[in-house]
User: Fold these one by one.
Assistant:
Number 1:
Amino acid sequence: MTSISLNPTTKYLDGDFGFKPKHENSFLNSKKMNSKGCNMAILQLSLMIFDFVMDILFVSKEGKAVEALYIPSIIFLTVPIGINTIGAFYIISKENKEGLFFDWFTQHEKVASVFTVLSSADIEILSTLHSHLAGFEFFHAPTSTKGKNRIFWISCLTVFVEDIPQMIIQLLYHNSVVTYDIIPLLALISSSLSLLINIIGRSFQAINLYRHGTLEYDATEHKIKIDTNY
């Protein structure tokens, strides 16, 4: 019994009628999480592009300062680019065999092509296409689970053939030169951040894959579904 039922003019109203605060809070929490995810996606994309640019500048401007490191620097720059490029085009070609993805691709061909080319710098850039970034429709690619898994495994490979070797080369360079310019410093910082983020990110994805069978298990979304059922 509520105070509504005690009043003669309101006793026929349903005292239980109204929105559920719990569900509303869940919606607001979900929206807040999406906003944080958007900011994180922008930050990661910016860092990946910046790291790629700094790697190129390091090799082109400072690579010959230490002759012994020049050839390894070129190898561990070009080989990952080749792996990422082949991987990106392979993933897109496989995804285009799926009807939903092909429909999305034909509608947003220019954006998809640009990000496929950018993925030569880092295969994870391809994940931006299904990141729902800023709510743009062209960032809602219906990438299949297999496609996401392929991105994951290629990114794991590049940790060992790109991030770690480049980090070692830049540390050896730091210990071999007398003067240390701004480009090697920025390259070292970006490589360190990139390696750290990749290791942490791939580790969490591996845990999700092992525990939940998916790379992108969303505990918040799972909780919202449970709350809605109640």
Number 2:
Amino acid sequence: MRIFALADLHLSISAPKPMTVFGPGWAGHPQAIFERWPTVVGDDDLVLLPGDLSWAMRLPGALEDLVQVAALPGTKVLLRGNHDYWWPAIGKLRASLPPRMLAVQNDALRVGPVVVSGTRGWLTPGADSFGPEDRAIYLREQERLRLSLEAARRLGADLADTFHVLMLHYPPTGPGGTPTAFTDLIEQYRPDAVVYGHLHGVPQSRSLREWQGIPAYLVAADSLGFTPKLIAEV
């Protein structure tokens, strides 16, 4: 099994929103995703989708996008991003998802030899716009990450024959790559890899590549040419 990741699909069938406001590189990006995905991902592969999947405001609209993604090769694992306003209670979401599409929220899941954990994350202390409301969300996301990593451990994430991937939507570090509550937990639980998105217009050469020896991957779609990135083969 190969593990791929791609964040920030920003699809919008039900709520059209031109992404070219973020730069000309976004022109025609849905077509690019749907054309390039099958060139690298096979049916037996796992694709992690850490957030900002659809601009829809309600689940029915998001499902119009997700059904198309589900039809692509591979088993998909979804995580909520800051723009996934449509994301309902996790039980309702899981009951509504198309086949071969899973979701993580405050927990973890196992797909064969792979354990996937994750949480959205948030702005971190030191960010210019970080305020009291952000601090409350930051602390809540810290606890959600701890719960998810504990769930991963119960699923055998630490076993030698298991590959544990942590999904975040926001990057785990603070401004300038400084430590945060998220990186503290990453150091404590030591997943085999961390994937994150959210950052647009950031070249791979300037992205976080590792934390305390743990590989980290920026998988925002525009930074990858709208092609899923290979994380590992297990």
Number 3:
Amino acid sequence: FHTYHTKVFYAIYDKVDMRQLLPDLTEKWPAELIRPYNGKPFEIPQPVLNDKNNEIVHEYFWHKLPDFIPENSIILAETGTSEFGIFNMRAPRGVTFLTQILWGSIGYTVGAALGASLAGKSDNRRVFVLVGDGSFQLVCQEVSSMLRFQTNIVLILLNNDGYTIEKLIHGPERAYNNIQMWRYHKSFEYFGDGLKQNCPQSITGFAGQVKTRDEFEKAMQQVVNETDKIHFVEVIIPSMDAPKSLVVTIEGTREYKRREREGQE
């Protein structure tokens, strides 16, 4: 399936996408090939954590985060470590998950979160954004509109000091994967929080940096308690730490390319 056509072996059908094809295909599927799923529900394994180390790592983060997300929320995960991490997260009931994986481009979620928040306001649906530091630098100005339109979005920025996914693929020594460090949690202040001429605007809640698991859980409990406010939680994560799903994907891709090269020799 492609954006504007469907390809079956060597035949290309223009303007046919999966939304049109799959219903027709399943309707004509032989009944003897359709069987109900009788397997067990997928269980996400419990993380193995070092209790002596209180730093926030992906193994801990994605396991703990659902405890602070209410049912029927809207969650957006940015391309990169957030997207791979959330695939292994136990989502609360009724959650809508939004991401942009087709083109693999960064910067989608912050602006999309504003739209999702305005669209879900009548149903009292809260929006949680999970975005990396590099992606945020492309679209940070949307925070200004979030304040202006009085949203109660929860911005969770994963600060791993650069483009970690690219560092894992190409190596940590590539200078272009390092970025200018910002005071991300000061975004509300920079974009006019508290200025009289900007009233009315969002009521701001937590806006700070968390470096330990205890600090993260305390901040997120404030998020849970203050549902009428907009929050900014800047989470400090070790630079080369990554979700297992991302590490496995990169290792699998490297192995595939290695075998492909060997086959060409």
Number 4:
Amino acid sequence: MFGPDGYLYIALGEGVRTPEGSTSAQVFRAGILRIDVSGEQDGGLPIEPFHFGRLAGYRVPPDNPFVDDPRVRDEYWALGLRNPYRVSFDPQTGELWAGDVGSTVWEEVNRIEPGHHYGYPVVEGREQTGKRGWEDLGLPYTGPVFTYVHTAYDRAVIGGIVYRGDRHVELQGQYLFADNYSSKLFSLPAGADRVDDVALLARANQYAQRGVSSVTQLASGEVLVTTLGAASTPSGEVLELVPADLADDTLPASLQESAVNQVVTQDQAASLYQANCARCHGPAGDGDSPDARALGVPLPDFTEPGYLERRGRGKVRVIIAEGGAAHGLSALMPPWAAALSDAELDALVEYLGTMPGEE
């Protein structure tokens, strides 16, 4: 995105697993770049030639923080962000904000300062990871303004905006952000250096990787929220944040009809599992995944011969729909009835029956 200074800011994820002992300072990943693509010939470092496979056709602004540091690429504005997903500038203060999607435990909201390092891979959230990667650079470490731990619902932060509109007076000066999985919209005071609690403002109907994908604002300052929706139905939405007494939660008739008449193929059911279940239950269904180990609760092995029949297909479907807590199981297993249609729930249970050991 372009900043108020006219320069292009590029948010980059790590792209690959960062080996211990390495840094991202000499390659384009895990940070935010700031470059000049205006084409003007005066000022800045010499223009980069075009070259396949990397950034080209730009200049480096002369006041970039690492211009005189041979250990770090000149293009960097800030380092140490695992996956900065959605960045924005406060239209009043010019401060840059980012939501940083974590690995298996922590999500972060960061206020980005030039020349600072935000910890990854050495620190996630406010915890040491035991990895190495940037200590030798001697850069100032800046912790997140807010961080939250993964749950079955909240696990993928979506960076948002500092609200400067007129409709919601109570939100003036608040940073609004969301979580893709839970589709919750949160706020925190933009003037704070650190907060431990945030306010829950709203929740979209779509969630579990089909949830909120962006939080943005119009030129007027009013807030729009987009959701991805399901792959099998035209259910993605563009929503406007409005006062509760003006909200209309009625599902459009076209979407109601598509849900009733929906047919879910086995391939679509497999995609549903991989998108919504595999992160905890494992890609193979055996309960082996990084998130499972982090959650600290035993998970079923769907590949165990006869598992589905012993448990009962109907019972498994009800647990998926209503969540673990409703049936004396872990509350970390969320209810999926609001996210998946009846046809999707049925197809998902049938897919569990096709896993190795169940055939």
